[in-house]
Amino acid sequence: MHGLKQSELWSALADHYNEIKHLHMRDMFNQDKNRFDKYSLQLNDILYDYSKNRINDQTLKLLLRLADEADLSGWIEKMFTGAPINNTEHRAVLHTALRDQGDQPVMVDGHDILPEIRQERERVKLLAESIRTRKWRGATNQAITDVVNIGIGGSHLGPLMVTEALRPHALHDLNVHFVSNVDENHINDTLEFLKPETTFFIISSKTFTTQDTMVNAETARQWYLSKIGDDKSIGRHFSAVTSNVKLAKDFGIAEDNIFKMWDWIGGRYSLWSAIGLSIVISVGSETFDELLQGAYEVDQHFRHAPFEKNIPVIMALLGIWYNNFFDAQTMAVLPYDQHLHRFPGYLQQADMESNGKSVDRQGEVVDYTTGPVIFGEIGIAAQHAFFQLLHQGTKLVPADILAPIYSYHCIARHHRALMSNVFAQAESLMRGKTKAEVRAELVDQGLDDAQIEKLLPYRVFPGNRPTSTLLFDTLNAKTLGSIIALYEHKIFVQGIIWNINSFDQWGVELGKQLAKNILNELNDNATVNKHDSSTNGQINYYKQRRPKNNS
Ligand code: F6P
Question: In this predicted model, what pLDDT tens digit does every residue of 45-102 receive, in sequence order?
């Protein structure tokens, strides 16, 4: 919808916001006993409860109109059918094709891409299974015990998050490591305890030009060669996932070990592709298939469910409600399942690299706010860290809570303690604690009036802080696939309504460009004076403290 803020609907939403901003959710729940039934949805084993949000029927009605007026249905079809909706790069956006289990062709440039996707997946599985079953032998005929994925951004965060989340499925005698940081500590700490004879590297880079990844890849190769000394055996120990096959070959990787990516997969949407090789090696191809199945079922839901029953659509609309009308600048994601400890980091890239844009599809600077700052942490840990601000700070921070009904080991004592916190936090954020409640509590504790008056203001909780909760049976691969896809589609919907392209990332280019120039300046001891005084000062200070010959 062009001119979003000037639309009649936007004004209606702004008016509606003024009407309801003073309403307290505590009263809304008191007045409507059916709120939970009304404002929760279920998809397979996932319950999405969005009743603890500052909304009523009218809010939803207006927000749903936003989706219609943006022609969301049309855009969904465009995405699924391969239209070049990534307009600045003239590319289709087809991560959904990677998990498509159907038999309808998906056409890009006049040909069906499903056969090549499936063929590449079979190649990934063959390699992964041969490593898992110890058939794959290294240069000295030993089986592989350690796999190191070298990549960054989407070539790192998704696979890392998923392998951590599906840890119980991993083989105990095969370790999968992830190296992303160009800081030498990352690769050195990883390689320190590994043996080249039993280590297998995956160089994951869509472009095969990302500095961090290529520097780490070169160090890995040198480490391997310094110990094994045989260039030809590299094929037993190195593989690549990339859309730049030529550069991977130039690096010395055997063609058989190069797995393809396509330009219609964005890095942050790529874990479903061969970029998931580390996942398949870690958890096996059957588990990976379940992950794809879970995502596919959400794809079907997203494509076909009416918007008022469509979980990613509702998630997106609520985000817009807080972002654009309540002026909430952030959004917290709080998984209570320890295995999801990398989920907030993964989601930061997925969401912020997608929707952190300020120019719309027509090239105009937008006059409304777009993607929020995403942050998060394992819920229990966060309770003892930043929940103070969520409960009593001056900022409104809408939060998503994710929690399992069963943990893998199912020790009831642990799990009930965990879940009591899930329910209590969402309830207390919503209800808060009134002055009268605090006073009654302090009277019970035997405090006198003067003491009570002094303490009262600090002990009040304003409440009315929104949370949405995703409860799922257990964090198996299928459910995880579904959860990831829900968030991917939520991000898509928001991008459509904000009229931005969620699938490019020009904002990361400037830093890369400057780093390239500065890298040249660090190659000698000459004083640098081309930058502002701060940048010159820092570079020259660095060069003085660490002159070139003193590496
Ligand atoms: O710099 C950002 C970015 O381009 C991400 O979008 C991407 O996921 C990451 O770098 C890694 O890129 P590549 O897979 O090409 O190495």
Answer: 999 999 999 999 999 999 999 999 999 999 999 999 999 999 999 999 999 999 999 9
Quick: pLDDT tens for 518-533: 999 999 999 999 999 9
Paired with 331 in beta bridges are 374
Q: How many CB atoms lie within 10 A of CB 218?
A: 13
CA 78 centroid distance within chain: 23
- Tell me if 180 CB under 6 Å of ligand 1: no
Q: Whose CA is nearest to atom 1 of ligand 1?
A: 508
Per-residue confidence (pLDDT) for residue 229, from 0 to 100: 87
pLDDT on residue 232:
85
Find tokens 């329910």 and name the residue.
423
The reply to whether ligand 1 has any atom less than 6 angstroms from the CB of 159 is: no
Would you say residue 294 has pLDDT above 80? yes
Residue 549, pLDDT score: 72
Instruction: Name the residue of 178, 241, 262, 505 whose CB sits within 8 Å of the most ligand 1 atoms, as the mutation to test its pocket.
Output: 505
How many Cβ atoms from other residues are within 10 Å of residue 275's Cβ? Answer: 29
Cβ count near 267 (within 10 Å): 24
pLDDT single digits (tens) 3-52: 899 999 999 999 999 999 999 999 999 999 999 999 999 999 999 999 99
Cβ atoms of 478 and 290 closer than 8 Å:
yes
51 with 278: CB under 8 angstroms? no
**What type of residue is 205?**
S
Greatest C-alpha distance within the chain: 83
Query: Which atom of ligand 1 is the closest one to the Cα of 509?
Result: 1
* DSSP assignment letter at 324: I
E-strand ranges in 62-137 read 107-108, 111-112
Q: Are 158 and 346 in contact (CB under 8 A)?
A: yes
User: 């690096």: which residue's tokens?
Assistant: 251
Among the listed residues 145, 144, 222, the one whose alpha carbon sits nearest the alpha carbon of residue 187: 222
Closest C-alpha residue for ligand 1 atom 9: 153
Query: What backbone phi and psi angles, to 5 degrees, belong to 336?
Result: -100, 5
Rounded Cα distance, 165 and 530, in Å:
47
**Ligand 1 nearest-atom number relative to CA 275:** 14
Q: Determine the pLDDT at residue 551.
A: 53
Bridge partners of residue 49, in order along the sequence: 40, 469
pLDDT reported for residue 1: 55
| 529: number of Cβ within 10 Å | 9
The number of angstroms, rounded, from the C-alpha of 314 to the middle of its chain's C-alpha atoms is 18
**What is the three-class DSSP state of 437?**
helix
